[in-house]
Write a structure and sequence with these properties.
Distance between the termini: 10 Å
Number of domains: 1
Number of helices: 3
Structural class: mainly beta
Mean pLDDT: 79
Radius of gyration: 17 Å
Helix content: under 10%
Order of helices and strands: EHEEEHEEEEEEHEEEEEEE
Largest sheet: 17 strands, mixed
């Protein structure tokens, strides 16, 4: 059943400069998804308690419409899943340049951990195309990347239990958030590792869309004194309701959920 969603998950998801997306009624492009699926490793794991969905967002920059986005969770051959984010600019310079970005992570579940197997990122404009593919080998506990990888971070990177990509961290926040709780994750992608700590507010925020109201938990990650990322999640909603990036105390990029539906 299709359900209306909260107005307003982005720094974690894709380079913000490439922020863009597909129309709310359109399925995501499968380029990055196909790359990630083709590259996935054969690592067995137990079946996770996840439900497939498709979610549509509007993207804003400094409060002005910039584009649209689609996130989806796809059930693959058990025990694998794939989470995708596709963004396309439809307004201003982003729209004129035809900029779009895709990211896709194939993963399984080890215990309570969403464990990445492959990660593909594709950033495109009229004149350029950049693609990177990450391979997460849990037998050797090492991750490596191919494609247009930053020469300062060529990898490989030693993996630790619990390491995730940005897309998986967003799913983990949805799973783990409790009022007043502090969440710790390690981000590993594109030859880089970063510790991500989210602090969940003690009080929930009331968010209303049409005739529907949500009690949303607000989780904040402070990267440094001048930058922070805020994610709002709600019980029984499988995707972030909103992801906001702030710099120097000002709102910059904002991803706002407008609709989601479960997929059989």
């Amino acid at each position: 059943m299709r359900r209306p969603l909260l107005p307003a998950a982005l720094a974690l998801l894709l380079p913000l400069v490439a922020m863009a997306q597909t129309p709310p009624q359109a399925a995501p492009s499968q380029e990055a998804a196909s790359v990630a699926t083709a590259a996935q490793a054969d690592v067995p794991a137990p079946e996770p308690a996840l439900q497939p969905f498709v979610a549509n967002y509007l993207v804003y920059k400094a409060g002005k419409p910039l584009g649209e986005a689609t996130m989806q969770l796809v059930r693959q051959q058990p025990p694998r899943w794939r989470v995708d984010l596709v963004m396309r600019g439809t307004r201003g310079l982003f729209g004129l340049a035809g900029i779009n970005a895709e990211q896709s992570t194939v993963f399984d579940v080890a215990g309570e951990t969403y464990r990445p197997l492959t990660q593909a990122t594709v950033n495109k404009s009229i004149f350029t195309r950049k693609q990177t593919i990450g391979f997460y080998d849990w037998r050797s506990n090492a991750a490596r990347w191919e494609g247009e990888v930053d020469e300062d971070h060529p990898g490989p990177v030693a993996l630790e239990a619990g390491d995730m990509t940005g897309l998986l961290i967003n799913l983990a926040v949805i799973r783990d958030a409790e009022p007043g709780k502090t969440l710790h994750y390690r981000f590993v992608d594109d030859g880089r590792t970063r510790d991500h700590t989210y602090v969940v507010a003690g009080q929930v925020d009331s968010i209303t869309v049409g005739n529907l109201s949500y009690k949303a938990m607000k989780a904040t990650r402070a990267k440094d004194a001048n930058e922070e990322t805020v994610i709002w999640v709600a019980r029984n909603v499988p995707t972030p309701i909103r992801i906001l990036q702030r710099e120097n105390g000002e709102d910059t990029y904002d991803l706002r959920l407008v609709e989601y539906r479960g997929v059989d």
